Amino acid sequence: MSDDAATTEAPPAAGGGPETGSDGAPRRTVASRLVGALGSGLVQLLLVLIALFWLVPTLGLFVSSLRSPADNASSGWWTALLQPAQLTMDNYAKLLENAVFTGSFLNTILITVPSTLLIVVIAALAAYAFAWLEFPGRDWLFLGVVGLLVVPLQVALVPIAQLYGGLGIYGSIAGVVLFHVGFGLPFAIFLLRNFFAAIPRDLLEAARMDGGKEFTIFRRVILPLGGPAIASLTIFQFLWVWNDLLVALVFADAANQPMTKALQAEMRQFGANIDIISSGAFISMLVPLVVFFAFQRYFVQGVMAGAVK
Amino acid sequence: MADTRQPPPGAAQGAPPGGEDEDRAGALGPPRWLSLVFLLPALLFLGAYMVYPILFSVYRSLWDAAGTEFVWFDNYVKMFSSPGTFIALRNNAVWLVVAPIVVTVAGLIFAVLTERIKWATAFKLIVFMPMAVSFLASGVIFRLVYEQDPERGLANAVITTVQDTVSPAGAYPDARPREEGDLPAAPGGGYEVPEQVSAGETVAIGLVGVAPEDLPGDAAPAAVPQPGGPDEITGTVWLDFTPGGGGEEGAVDPEERGLPGMEVQLVSDGQVEATAGAEPDGSFVFEDVGSGPYTVQLSERNFTPPYAGVSWLGPTLVTPAIIGAYLWVWAGFAMVLIAAGLAAIPRDALEAARVDGATEWQVFRRVTVPLLSPVLMVVFVTLMIYVLKIFDLVFVIAPGSVQADANVLALEMWRVAFGINDQGLGSALAVFLLLLVIPAMIFQIRRFRREES
């Protein structure tokens, strides 16, 4: 997100002929400046309203998570802004004693970390081959990967569920992880290959000339230069898997379910479980939010590279 | 243009490797078998999780629910004829027509507006933030927003506040006559006293249905109706109910209280001649009345129920409501991509148009939008692909009772394949989804080849 503040100079609202900077500026310019200032004020106001529209719902979840179920049932969360005495950490304390939830938090980590690492390593290897190694059918194969980018994962649910049933890993964490790797790869390969391909040929040729083995070149030249792309991919995949619900819904059983699935199960009694749902949802958001604000540039790049996925 | 990656340090301009004639597999190049080592893990995964499932799904979709009988295209026929899947198809069509346009337009507006402000970065961060959190969390957030009760749901709280300012709720929405016949409904709403009155007479209007705790704080013991002056009509409107029992129906008893603020009207020939408000003890006076006779009525405004808010998650509005949540999640994505596109537009083109005397709107319409159209296209197509596969938001926001009304293809696929275990129909739905994204696949491959060449 680049800051375009440098170009905030308000353009002339009307006509806008070149100013002749003489004594006594023409009335029209004053008027148009006034219109411009007024317009800019309106734009600012509009954007403040829009920003509120984006912030307030999240604030609502947060404040709700700090209120007792009885308070939530009887009045809106905004009343707590005037009566801060309502606020309590009880929901969070209760949540931390809830074995199902703490277990699902751990499962989320156990699913997300291996998936992300596997995707990045496997995709980096393949992307290097697509970018810098010669083999027959390379370009066609890569077009195939580009085509796979948009395949809906629904198409794999039934076949892989049957496959996992046969292999005896249906419901396990390994099954969920492997599924994420399979469906994360096309995008990961696509992103890294395009980045690797932009690395100057001279650098590679020089390394090869020095007698470097391909794996050495991969480790010493490609990986360091590809750092930004690998960071984008890592963050994007991490959040993608962390936030997944559907894959977990199908492939994780109750003992191995991540937070998203555990919380979803509570949604059937939304009103009654609002204490668990609101605090749990907020905890599940915390890690993504921290990652987002800490690495927003990389995350945004990852998302943008994913356009037309 | 979506290609906004930072080039690596010292990256030479325009040196893409692919498709060059030079033979790299020469003396310096690595042996070809090595490519396979690098590619093998990825190929195994892509084969097992994408290629095989696509083939198997097509095959499986031709078999019945249990997979024991070959049924040709029966599952596809069922998909278009069963009411459940038909609603899903219809909703998906609505989603596809509405959501990508709304999100792209919002992104365009935000991107253009933020070009001029100093806190653009902060604004973009705020609007982009929902992209980082799960659809589940966004869904929970919007379940709270769309809560029906205006006391608890933000959307209805805002709407009812506005609505109550425009037409305030009456003070006594639940008040009513003891018997239907005591006070007939007035032609314009509210209740009227059946007997007509003339100057010098009094009326007693007893109502029930107001819980004692709902009475206004200033309600005083009701006054027994007293005749006023010769040109006055007087009366009392009170709660004809003695707490704890006792008291005489239709008469003002000591324990009973007035209904302060009740709006009483004097009507003649359908015209409201005078209006009076009841005192804390329920008494009211019409002064200087003509000869009459008049009808006394309690105006409709007294009984207007408080506005109950919009039923966001009811069967009719649930899909638009979820599209609203979708906009909240995805607008940041569109905005950031379009803003990057805007930044890449040469300033000269805009300046030239301005010097030629174009207004800002003309510059936007004739220069900016055409130059942006490739980016807008990419945003639009990407959103279409995601909208086709929409699952989580619908699943989380739509309450169980209206989930059938909010149904979409991906949700129906999951329900059919893993809820009622019809994997034949489930596979057919998955294959259908795949067919729907194939145009996007072609768009994607074309765009890629164009960028490579």
UniProtKB/TrEMBL annotation, chain A:
PROSITE patterns: ABC_TM1
Subcellular location: Cell membrane
Region Disordered, residue ranges: 1-26
Zinc-finger is among the record's keywords: no
Keyword Transport: yes
GO cellular component, one term: plasma membrane
Segments traversing the membrane: 34-56, 105-133, 140-161, 167-192, 221-242, 276-295
The ABC transmembrane type-1 domain, residue ranges: 105-295
Keywords on record: Cell membrane, Membrane, Transmembrane, Transmembrane helix, Transport
Pfam family, one: BPD_transp_1
One of the GO biological process terms: transmembrane transport
Record InterPro entries: MetI-like (IPR000515), MetI-like_sf (IPR035906)
Main location: membrane
Low complexity bias: start-end ranges: 1-13
Family per similarity comment: Belongs to the binding-protein-dependent transport system permease family.
PANTHER family named in the record: ABC TRANSPORTER PERMEASE PROTEIN MG189-RELATED-RELATED, OSMOPROTECTIVE COMPOUNDS UPTAKE PERMEASE PROTEIN GGTD
Protein name listed in UniProt: Alpha-glucoside transport system permease protein
Source organism (scientific name): Nocardiopsis composta
Species lineage: Bacteria, Bacillati, Actinomycetota, Actinomycetes, Streptosporangiales
TrEMBL record, chain B:
Higher taxonomy: Bacteria, Bacillati, Actinomycetota, Actinomycetes, Streptosporangiales
Localization of this protein: Cell membrane
Region of interest (Disordered), residue spans: 1-24, 168-193
Classification via InterPro entries: MetI-like (IPR000515), MetI-like_sf (IPR035906), UgpAE/MalFG_permease (IPR050809)
GO terms under cellular component: plasma membrane
Keyword Kinase: no
Protein's UniProt name: Alpha-glucoside transport system permease protein
Family the entry assigns: Belongs to the binding-protein-dependent transport system permease family.
Ranges of Pro residues composition bias in the record: 1-10
Record's keyword annotation contains Mitochondrion: no
Record membrane topology: Multi-pass membrane protein
Gene3D superfamilies from the UniProt entry: MetI-like
Keywords (A to Z) from UniProt: Cell membrane, Membrane, Transmembrane, Transmembrane helix, Transport
Gene Ontology biological process terms from the UniProt entry: transmembrane transport
Domain annotation ABC transmembrane type-1: ranges: 89-446
Pfam families per UniProt: BPD_transp_1
Species assigned in the record: Nocardiopsis composta
Transmembrane segments: 33-55, 93-113, 125-146, 325-346, 367-388, 424-443
